[in-house]
Amino acid sequence: MKLPWQGTSFANGIHPEDHKELTEHKPIRRMPFSNKIIVPLSQSIGAPAKPIVTKGQDVMRGEPIAEAGGFVSAPIHAPVTGTVSAVDELVSMPNGSKTPAILIDTWPSSDQAIRYLQPRDTKVMSADELVKAVQDAGVVGLGGAAFPTHVKMKAPKGKTITTLVANGCECEPYLTCDHRTMLEQTDNLLKGLQLAMVTSGAEKAIIGIEDNKMDAVEKIREAINKQQLTNITCEAVPTCYPQGAEKMLLKSLLGLEVPAGGIPADIGCAVFNVGTLAQIGELVPEGRGLIERIVTVSGPGVSKPGNYIIPLGTPLPYVLEQVGAIEKPGMIILGGPMMGMSIATRDIATTKGITGILVFPPEQLPCCNEPEMPCIGCRACVEACPMYLNPSMLGKLADVSRHQEMMDEYHLMNCFECGCCSNSCPANIPLTQKIRVAKQSIRQKARNAR
């Protein structure tokens, strides 16, 4: 079945240097286990997980150590075999906040084999049973959002999902973990996609990949043909940032626009990251939890860049040591350089939502160090914005805290902070940061008013 692809991309966007050559051709490698694991209880959008282990307790790799704190939450499993050394220990998060965590001392004598398994025959499982299995596995969106995946495995009440989209664009510079996943875990990706089709009720699925990854497109198409999956197709879309944003991808693949303030289900679609689907395809049949993920570790400050399978909770200093990072970097970014987060401390650990760790020397920072200048009214930011907003005006209003006007007149909440405006501004105005701070202030006021 050929799906109706329009052959065009979304409007606007930018074409930053991708720097993917550092890691895109290197096979995925496994990083050794660190002596201590730090497992934050907040690793997804929603309520934090609740510990179900105690200090001094021995745990097996893959064993549940924290239960979901609500429906929009995800359980957590032991990334290593070892002994719990602390529970509810406050640790730093990338955004500077503190969150409770479970600390585990790794057993040096253990082979770290996963023995906590509950194999299932997914062919005889109902849609509800599959959703429960995904929830029990603690799977969250691995594209960076870290939204609990089970919540979107079924169509929202009153909605019908007809088309499921697997997002393999990976448009952020430097990041290649999804690319390598599509090449090396193709079968798991297709298994996970088929399971998601069962739970969502989708009649067809389409895998969207930017055309700078044609090796992945060809590999997946070959697997689709071999397995005779007539209701799944794979399409190459034009390489343009932020093609990987779900609204942009749906526009490019299907010619459909998600309504302002809406979700993909409003147009009969559901979008999943390819890495998330590959984990579903692997974890659900094996009956085990998400305890590790593939992370791109790259940048000019790394001597051994690559895509590494890293146990969740691995301390960042240990990761940097393993990849030969420079001792005094000018900047470390978690995620990609466009939408990732520059961190002020190394005293953090890897979590489910970290897609990349990028290290830059002081003389090779990915951002402009020039001083901010007055806006010259060139409209470069307007022409770059994929959401048809006016970032220049939003930035000016943010400077004087006219937040209500930003929302009512300039559709502030339609911005998803892709960074195109800041990247395009010749006056070096940090428009994305101004907009992000304004949105955070609005949300905080709303919370205080409850």
TrEMBL record:
Q: Which GO terms describe its molecular function?
A: 4 iron, 4 sulfur cluster binding; electron transfer activity; metal ion binding
Cofactor(s), by name: [4Fe-4S] cluster
- Report the record's Gene Ontology biological process terms: electron transport chain
Principal place of residence: membrane
Keywords noted in UniProt: 4Fe-4S, Cell inner membrane, Cell membrane, Electron transport, Iron, Iron-sulfur, Membrane, Metal-binding, Repeat, Translocase, Transport
Does this entry carry the keyword Iron-sulfur? yes
User: Could you tell me which residue ranges the 4Fe-4S ferredoxin-type domain spans?
Assistant: 364-396, 406-435
Subcellular localization is given as: Cell inner membrane
Q: What GO cellular-component annotations does this UniProt entry give?
A: plasma membrane
Q: How does it sit in the membrane?
A: Peripheral membrane protein
Record region (Disordered): 1-26
Which residues does the record give as [4Fe-4S] cluster 2 binding sites?
385, 415, 418, 421
Assembly with partners or alone? The complex is composed of six subunits: RnfA, RnfB, RnfC, RnfD, RnfE and RnfG.
| Family to which the UniProt record says this protein belongs | Belongs to the 4Fe4S bacterial-type ferredoxin family. RnfC subfamily.
Q: What does this protein do?
A: Part of a membrane-bound complex that couples electron transfer with translocation of ions across the membrane.
**Mind telling me what this protein is named?**
Ion-translocating oxidoreductase complex subunit C
Gene name tied to this protein: rnfC
